[in-house]
């Protein structure tokens, strides 16, 4: 006896899978843009500070230290 899914279950499964893939790729491209642009990190600190905290923690966890300390220093230097 073969186990088959009804069409509604297949659509729900495909929708959930698609949502997860979009979320993974979105997080990757957001991290990549934040990693490359200090101006984008400044924008994120104004609009979504909790996302910036996650970015800083993930970079510190991976061994890329001092980004959190360098951002305010660069902002102060650019204003002067």
Describe the structure.
The chain has one domain (12-78). It is elongated, with a radius of gyration of 20 Å. The model has no long low-confidence stretch (mean pLDDT 89). The chain has helices at 7-36, 38-47, 49-62, 67-79. The chain has 80 residues and is mostly helical.
Q: How many strands appear in the DSSP assignment?
A: 0
State the end-to-end distance: 75 Å
Specify Rg, calculated over alpha carbons. Answer: 20 Å
Secondary structure: helix percent: over 70%
Give the H and E element order: HHHH
> Beta fraction of the residues?
under 5%
Q: Note the main sheet.
A: none
Return the domain count.
1
Tell me which oligomeric state these chains represent.
Answer: single chain
Averaged pLDDT, please? 89
- Tell the overall outline: elongated
Structural class call reads mainly alpha
Count of DSSP helices? 4
Low-confidence stretches: none
């Amino acid at each position: 006896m073969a186990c088959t899914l009804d069409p509604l279950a297949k659509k729900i499964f495909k929708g959930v899978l698609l949502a997860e893939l979009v979320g993974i790729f979105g997080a990757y491209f957001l991290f990549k843009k934040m990693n490359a642009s200090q101006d984008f990190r400044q924008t994120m600190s104004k609009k979504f500070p909790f996302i910036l905290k996650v970015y800083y923690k993930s970079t510190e966890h991976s061994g890329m230290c001092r980004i959190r300390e360098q951002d305010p220093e660069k902002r102060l230097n650019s204003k002067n």
